[in-house]
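request received
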Amino acid sequence: MSVKQNMYNSFRVQMLLNVLGALILLVVSAAYLLYSTTRMQDVINKSFEQQRYIRETQESLDEFRKPFQEYLSSKSSKALSELLMVSQRIRSSIPTGQPIPTDQEGLREREIYSLVGSWLDFADLAIEEKRGMDIERYTKRYAEMQAMYEYINREITSISSMRFSAQLENYEVFIATSKNIQVWNLMFIVSISLFSLLLILTAVDKINKPMVNLSETASEIAAGNFEVADIGMTNLYEIDHVVEAFNRMKRDIHTSIEELKWQRNVEQEYMHERVKNMKMQEMLRRMELYTLQAQMNPHFLFNTLNTGIQLAIVEGAERTGEYMDHLAKLFRHNLREKDVVVPLRHEIEGLESYFYILGVRFPRNLDLVLDCPPEILDAYSVPAYILQPLVENCVVHAFKNADSRNSIVVRAYREGVRLCLSVADNGIGMDAEKVDSLMRPMPALDTGSKVMGLENVIQRLFFFFPDDPEVVSIVSEPGKGTEILVKIDTGKKLCTAF
Amino acid sequence: MKPYIKAGLIASGASVLISFGMSLYLVMGLLERVPLDEQAVAPKYQFLLYVPKTNNEYFSLIESGARRAARSCGAVISVHSVDYSGNDLSMAARSGSDGVAVCPDINDQSVKKALEEMRAANLPVVLVNHNIPSVKPWPFVGTNNFDFGKKAAQAILGDLEPGINLAVVYSEKNPAMYAEKELVEMGLSGVLGRQLLSAVTSLKTDTNPQSAEQVIYQLMRTMDGKATVVFTDSEDTIAGTQVVVDLNLVGRIRIIGFGNSPEILEYIRKGIISATLVVDPELIGYQAIMTLVELKEVGYTSNSVDIGIKVIEGE
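response:
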């Protein structure tokens, strides 16, 4: 949103206008109060001014009469100069060129001033006639002047009386009206002060409101609520600049935090997936182990049971009993051993029974040698079922089409920190390619094929000792027999869990 | 803007306007009562109107008509009394006015002297309601009193009864009629002729509104048989008629009234007054000022403006 800039949208201009407006209102109100008060004073002044003026004229006429009479009686030059001065003063005080008034008092006052002028003209004529000693004329003139003077006085009194009545009536109205005007003026000044105050408050509120909004929105954002709506614009471009920057900042922070959240979720999902995978691998290994262990029993049982049946037919019950005894030992051994790791003695004892059974099966063409020092029988532990499958592998695969006497030699000995278990035969042997294929570790998840015998033992040894590639090795050549050598690092523990 | 601030602004703004308006209205009213500034258009002329010193409505109407005429032609009038000695009227020549309309009092000579002074001062003068004979007559606005007599006689002739004892009641409240009573009676005699059993009796009331009662009593004592009375003032007509009613003389005394006040019209409706002669004094005052304006602006006017007399008779 862009902030439209013009003079009126300026915060400073608006503040200036509001304060200036309030001040102008106050000045105008003060000016009006001054005007109304002045006009009321003028009303009072004017009502008395006219009266004062006409009274002064009357007094001047009285002042004139004394030197006038003195002159007419004595022709005193002093009196003449005095009356000329007074005459001049009166003439100069008579208003001339004034517009004709419209009120009765004003009209009669105007007539009086005209009569006063005529009266002074008569006085001038009388003075001339006195100088010319025209007694009859100035005497008559004096009489006319006297009548005129009385009329003027009567008229002034009449006008004064009329004006006084009017002033009295006006005064009562004036007092009552003045009180009302003062009350309304007081209300006016109070109202206009309140109006000005509210005008300034409005201006302050216009500025304060976006600031409060900013503060509230900032608090919301600080509390983590980025969904709060943008702050609205105010038409004050200085404020709007701040608001716009704040809104932009809010959106940017919101976007950044959303991105961080997304990354964390991805990482969590990744870790979760990884743990899930590891658990699955462990489970697979266990399953694989159990499967391998379970795979041995059916083969062995099938073969030994056939041999037992044949013995029972050919010979008497004594040998059959010994045979079945070894068979029972072997079964017990196999069924008893559920652990992944067993003492070497267990493997050797199981192998001895197995050897007896094999001796019974192949009494003429198979030599079985077991060489194991008694002191190491209980000193070491080995993965379960690693010797018997190797011997069985020899029996099954090593002597195919072999004409010479077959032998299987199992030896156990120490070589440094390693416990060495060797199963050697003099069978047909294996080529290098076959050895390589057997020695290649299979992927942990590749459990689709069923692994038996030698391959089973090799894969289990790789599984238990993933970091030790020398744990098992095959020494074989075609026609020269095979030796399978298991070298267990006694310093390391078997890897059975993650 | 917050609602309470908005409401405050509206309320205080309305209060400002109301208080300012009221204050200004009162100040203007005060100034109108006592104007401080000169009027926008000053009057062109100031005329003087001299009327007899009475409270008679007749002259009030003349004054009212004169003021109406002054307003219509941009002039103002100041009203003065005609005192018996004529001294006040003599001041008119030196009053600085533009013209004078005079309703002369009975004392023709003092008035005439004052009028001559005004003529000497080249001041336009109009005589109102009552003419003053002169070698160089002044313009006159009013009624022809000879015509008044004729109209009154014609109203009397409406009731055809042979032999008429006729009395005319003049009044100081209408001095113009009394001043020219010969003309009035000539008009009456001219129409009635031999119908009159005797010479017309002239009676006169003063400015007292009830003085007509005394005149009617006097008439009863001096006049035998039926009589006809012609009044020349509306107040006298009402007072005199009431006496006739009070004395149970209705039918014996036939009344010809003056004026058209509601009371007189009611008497006519009841048949107590036979007829009344009506002069429009408001029109007289109006024409007097218009004549002065004509004199001032044109320099001359017709010598006499007859306003006319209307007769209202009962059915």
